[in-house]
């Protein structure tokens, strides 16, 4: 496969495809970062239910030793909360009260990869990089830091100091098959950064 760019009829970039752009060493580094969250991954897969999302349904995983789906964020709105009146919080996978602190170890392991991938975004989509960087800085300086008496915001500040991505959320999907689908909550101007890595035949 060769690098490719998909654009619409107006010339707007819809997709950048950069196969094999990540070195094997870089992929191994990201794969090793899964070690602290293996237990969390194993607990993330659910049996089919009427209201379950395909992201976590057991039948979409490959049945290998390491598999699962987790979300991480230093600041996002909890499910069911009104974004206009609620304050963002650290995701459950990174909260200090979580009995499994593997998520925080994963975040520390991912600092270098996150920084490198942010630089990639700065090259491919400088406007998106600038917007994301500004959002993270504002979350830290204008929301988290000015409230040292609020435990939730103190925790947010702690996680933001380790969060080197210009995206405010990251999903880890291990050995999962993705069915054909359309993300109805995703806008054309809201690009995401997706990586497929392998180590010994495993896919992330």
Number of helices: 6
**Structural classification:** alpha+beta
Average pLDDT taken over every residue: 83
Strand residue content: 5-15%
Shape, principal axes of CA atoms: globular
First-to-last CA distance: 19 Å
Strand order of the largest sheet: 1-2
**Radius of gyration, Cα only, in angstroms?**
18 Å
**Sheet with most strands:** 2 strands, antiparallel
Helix and strand string, N-terminal first? EEHHEHHHHEEE
What's the helical proportion of residues?
25-40%
Q: If you had to describe this structure to a student in words, what would you say it looks like?
A:
With 204 residues, the protein is of the alpha+beta class. It is built from six helices and six strands, in the order ββααβααααβββ. The strands form three sheets. Strands 1-2 form a two-stranded antiparallel ribbon. A two-stranded antiparallel sheet has the order 3-4. It has a two-stranded antiparallel ribbon with strand order 5-6. The chain is globular. The two termini are 19 Å apart.
